[in-house]
Amino acid sequence: MGNWNQRPPGGTTLTLTRARRHVQRFIDQFGNPHSQLKDTSTGHGAFETLVNKVTGATYFEYGPARTWNTTYRPMYSQYGMMGAWQAGSPMTVSAAHAKQLAQRWLTQHQPGTMAQTPDQNDQFPGYYSLHILKGGKITGMLSVNGYSGQAWYHAWHGAFTRMKTL
Fold first, then answer.
1. Residue extents of the structural domains in the chain
2. What is the pLDDT of residues 48-61, one digit of tens each?
3. What are the angstrom distances between the C-alpha of 24 and each of 6, 48, 64, 126?
4. Rounded CA gap, 39 and 114, in Å?
5. pLDDT band, very low/low/confident/very high, at 145 (cuts 50, 70, 90)
């Protein structure tokens, strides 16, 4: 999983416009139209990606997007079932409960931070991804499994800079 965020010597950072083109090419390979990485049939998120800020290489995000996603999970097709959840089965953890579980994890591991209330864009097939806030600013991300309630901190993101809906 290594080097996705490393910069080659002398490399310049992609603009958001160029990054969007790389993400669109990644999405197009699935042959299923998505808007803002949203599943148009459910109105919820489809999957999360990472984009190398220099090369534009685009990947399924590590962690929950690869292992908990019950619809688009790349780990399922490559390595077999990574969890006991089947596509189409309703999640047993609600968005409100996911926020409570995320807050419990944050209280233990990152005192002084808050879990942002998830909306429909934060719900993915099999899990929720919530922003972590400190002083009203986004400082990270945490996912909660929609069946087991397990929390997974996204340690690979680095410092948050900005977010843009495309």
1. 16-153
2. 777 777 777 777 77
3. 22, 13, 21, 23
4. 27
5. very high
